[in-house]
Amino acid sequence: MFRRSTHPGEHEKIASSALAHLPMAKAPDAIRTAIEASLDAPKAAAVRVKRPSWRWALLPATILLLYAITWSWYRVHRVRWDVVRVSGSLAPRSESIGAGEWLQTDASSRAEVRVGTIGTVEVEPDTRLRVVTTRPNEHRLLLERGEIAATISAPPKLFFVETRSATAVDLGCQYRMNVDDKGNGLLRVTLGWVSFDWQGRESLVPAGANCRTRAGTGPGTPFFEDAAKDLVAALDDFDFSGGGASALRTILDSARPRDTLTLWHLLARVDVSQRPLVYERMVSFAAPPSGVTRDKVLTLDPQTLKVWKDELAWSW
Amino acid sequence: MKRILSCVIPLAAFVAPVFGQGLSLTIGSPVAGQDFALKTSQFIFRVNGCVELSKAQVTATAIDSTHRSVALHLSAPQPSGVFAVNREWGANGKWVVAITANCLRETVGAIVPINGNSFARDNIQLLSHAPSQDEIDAALKTFTPTPPLRQ
Question: Is residue B40 part of a domain?
C-alpha cells in the first residue's frame, strides 16, 4: 500500500496529510455504549488468566488416582481366602471365598478355610457360614449353623465369628464352636482366651473352659470342662431357665478353687442381695490380692474386678 | 548393746526377704500370663517376692522316668517375673519339670508333672529348696498322667 521510504518521519507526514482530507462523520451510539461498558467493567476481568503449563497432566493424574483408590479398595475388601473342600472319598478340591459369599457343607463333606495369614477354620459337616469381612484388621465370619474349629495365631481382636446369639472375639486362641438354626450353641476353648459377647453381656472364656449361648439371652456363664456335673446343670438353670437363688446355692456348694472363673462372672450376674454370697465363697478359696476389697467388689468396680480376675487366672 | 545391734542389723537384712514377702513360685496355665504369645506354652510360672528380679537365677529341667533330662530355655522374664515353659522334651514317656529359683540368699523350687499338652495342677510340689533327685524320682513314681481332654 505504501511505498517503502528511507526518510525517517515520512510515514507520519503522509498519514497526517491523508487524515486532514477525510470528511468528519458522527460515530454510531453503539460504539460509545460499548466503550463506556468496557471502561466500567472490573479491571480484573481484563487481566488475562495465566493457566499453569502442567494443566494437561491433571487428567491422567486424576485417572491414575482413581485407579489407585479402586485398586486399594478392591485389595482390602475383596481379599479372598483359600478353601479346601473334602467330600466323602473324593480328592480335596481347592477354591476361594470372598466377603459376602456363603460356604456350606453337607452331611458327608467338610472344608478348611485359610483365614488370610492369621489362621485356619475347619468347617464340620452340615455347616453353613458366610464370610463377612476379609480386611487385614478384621476377619469376620457369620456362623449360621453347624460347627467350626478355629486356630488363630494373631494378636487379639482380629478374628470374629458371629452367631445369632453371640459373637466370639478371638483374644489369641484356638476353639471349637457349634450353633443350631436358632442360635443356641456351645463354645469350647482349647488355647488362649475368647471373649463371647452379645449386647453388652460378655463372657471371658479361657482354655479348658466352655460357654453356652442361647437365642434371646446371649452367652451364659463360662465353666471349666472338668467342673462338677451339678455345677454345670445348675449353671444352665441359672443362666437360661431362671433358676435363681436355688441354682446359685448349688453352684456355690459344688464350686472348686478353679471354678472361681464361674463365680467371678456371677458377681455381675446375680441380684445385688446375692452378691455377698458369691464374694464370700470366692474368698473362702484364696484371699483376694492387695487392693481388692469387699466394698469395691460388691460395687463391681471394673479395675478391682480386673485385678482380681488376673490373679485368679493363676488357678484357672 | 553395740554387740547386740551389730548382730541384729545384718540378721534383719537377711531375714527380711525371707519373712517379709518371701520368695515363692506360682505355677499356672498360660492363660494366666494375659499375653497371647504365651498361649502355646506348656505352663507358666511366676517368681514372687524377689526384690531384684534381674539378679534372680531361675532354671528349669525336664526329667523323665528313665532319667533323661533336658535343660529348658526359659523365655525372657516378663516385667512381672513370669516365665514360660515350652515343650522341649519328647512326646513319649512320663515327664516332670523341676524348677529352681534363687534370689539373693533364698532358694525355692517346684516339681511340675506334665500331663499331655498341659500340667497336672493337683500334683505340683512347691518346695522351700531346690528339688532333689529323690523328690523328682518320687514325683515320677507317684504321678500317673491322665488322658488329655478331647479336642
Answer: yes
The answer as to whether B125 is a domain residue is yes
Of B31, B39, B149, the CB nearest to A316: B31
Segments forming the whole domain that contains residue B67? 23-142
pLDDT per residue over A30-46, tens digit each?
A: 777 777 777 776 655 55
Instruction: Please tell me the total count of domains within chain B.
Output: 1
B contact residues 88-147, partner A, Cβ 8 Å cutoff:
118, 121
Q: Which three cell numbers stand for residue A92?
A: 480335596
Q: What is the pLDDT of residues A164-185, one digit of tens each?
A: 999 999 998 899 999 999 999 9
CATH number at residue B42: 2.60.40
Q: Quick check: B28 and A193 CB within 8 A? A: no
Q: Is the ipTM of this complex over 0.85?
A: no
Ordered DSSP codes for B65-97? TT--EEE--PPPPPTT-EEEE---S-SSS-EEE
Which amino acid would we find at residue B106?
Answer: E
In angstroms, rounded to a whole number, what is the distance separating the alpha carbons of residues A47 and A247?
89
pLDDT for B20: 46
Give Cβ neighbours of residue A191 (< 8 Å, ≥ 6 apart).
Answer: A151, A173, A174, A175, A207, B30, B39, B40
CATH: 3.90.105.20, 2.60.120.1440, 2.30.140.10, 3.90.1640.10. Which one for A81-220?
A: 2.60.120.1440
Residue of chain B nearest A204, judged by CA positions: B31
Q: Is B39 on the interface with A (CB under 8 A)?
A: yes
Q: Does the beta-carbon distance from B36 to A316 stay under 8 Å?
A: no
* CA–CA min distance B86, chain A (Å): 14
